[in-house]
Amino acid sequence: MERKSPDRHVGVAAGPVPLQIAPRRIYLSIRMNGSIPTIFDRLTALSDPTRSRLLALLDRHELTVTELCAVTQLPQSTVSRHLKVLGDGGWVTSRADGTSRRYRAMADRLDPTGRRLWTLVREQVSAAPAAQNDTQRLRSVLAERRSASQEFFSTAAGQWDRLRADLFGTRADLVGLLGLLDETWAIADLGCGTGQVSEMLAPFVAQVIAVDESPAMLNAARKRLKGHENVSVREGDLGALPIDDESLDSALLFLVLHYTADPAEVLTEVCRVLKPEGRVLVVDMMPHERSEFRNIMGHVWQGFGADELSRWAEQAGLNDLRYHPLPADPVAKGPTLFAASARRPARVATLRASTKPVAAASRTSKPKAGARAGHS
């Protein structure tokens, strides 16, 4: 009897044998096309010594292609080509500067792996003779840059104030100084008028309370200040402020004190609403003889001198008055202004009862300088 061959020997009848493919494995650690550069991508960008030299320079300074060419003594095409590789790899960035571009390293934005790698490479590159020569030539390039600035100022010194005013306005420096204010402060603009000063203060502090007694002025102030959520516009008399006791870090009386009948009373109210160690700033006119302001603008006082303002401040419970005349604006037609600041005293801490009455009496017999009853 003839034995049949096993099926495995009959190729035609069994049909085609399927091709066996091993399971697909993806090694994420060595992928080169991921969105985040890998260590191999980083090494590719830094593998060229010239690119490492350029990156070492840009790690410390922002430089143009022309300046990099002068430092490295390489042609522009070479420098530009290497900068493109570094830019594509996320090592450098650039910004427009007129007709040029300024390049700088982005080491501070690298992932931890990239930062560690660059620390190692930079240490090696910085010790190379070529990099040391680059450092020497870089000093000359930076010196030329400073010389260009100095040349401009040496020719423009006489007209610098006018140039700056033409470019940025006459009040840019004053408005910028408001950035020195504490962002947590609550400030009152007393006699706010149309709200111009409140508008300048609002971006720099936590709260502005704008107070005026003129309905027409308040209407204008509300329109001006409607976009500032941290400004509260209130109607009230400066002699009876609609503000809680000890709620303000600072108060401003800007060209308003000369309209008040009793400046001492106003300063007393200001002291009431200031926190301990809070400040008041008065900007107003120095003494003058221009009586027409009484008839035209309703001025009650023809300016204030340092002595009388200091006396009123002391009566109000305010200390450390400083009075400074302000530089005259050449286009201004009014009297010279001054700025005066004073401070509410710090609260005196209550002493605990002592087991030695004589010693306690000796400690409390001398009140703190400048403190007044009801204001300490």
Q: What are the key terms here?
A:
alpha/beta; single chain; Rossmann fold; 376 residues; 2 domains; three-stranded antiparallel beta sheet; Arc Repressor Mutant, subunit A; disordered C terminus
How many domain modules? 2
Q: What average pLDDT do the residues reach?
A: 80
Run of helices and strands: HHHEHHEEHHHHEHEHEEHEHHEEH
N-C termini distance: 126 Å
- The structure class reads alpha/beta
Please state how the strands of the largest beta sheet are arranged side by side: 6-5-4-7-8-10-9
Helix coverage percent: 40-55%
Task: Describe the fold and architecture.
There is one protein chain. The chain is of the alpha/beta class. The strands form 2 sheets. Strands 6-5-4-7-8-10-9 form a 7-stranded mixed sheet, with helices on both faces. The chain has a 3-stranded antiparallel sheet with strand order 1-3-2. The chain has 2 domains: about 130 residues, Arc Repressor Mutant, subunit A; about 190 residues, Vaccinia Virus protein VP39 (Rossmann fold), CATH 3.40.50.150. A hairpin with a 2-residue loop joins strand 2 and strand 3. The chain is about 40% helix and about 15% strand. Helix 3 crosses helix 6, helix 4 crosses helix 7 and helix 12 crosses helix 14.
Layout of strands and helices, then pairs:
Layout: H1 11-14, H2 39-46, H3 49-58, E1 63-64, H4 65-72, H5 76-88, E2 92-97, E3 100-105, H6 112-126, H7 129-156, H8 160-168, H9 172-176, E4 186-190, H10 196-201, E5 207-212, H11 215-225, E6 231-235, E7 248-254, H12 263-273, E8 274-285, H13 292-297, H14 306-316, E9 319-325, E10 337-343, H15 357-364
Parallel strand pairs: 4-5, 4-7, 5-6, 7-8
Antiparallel strand pairs: 1-3, 2-3, 8-10, 9-10
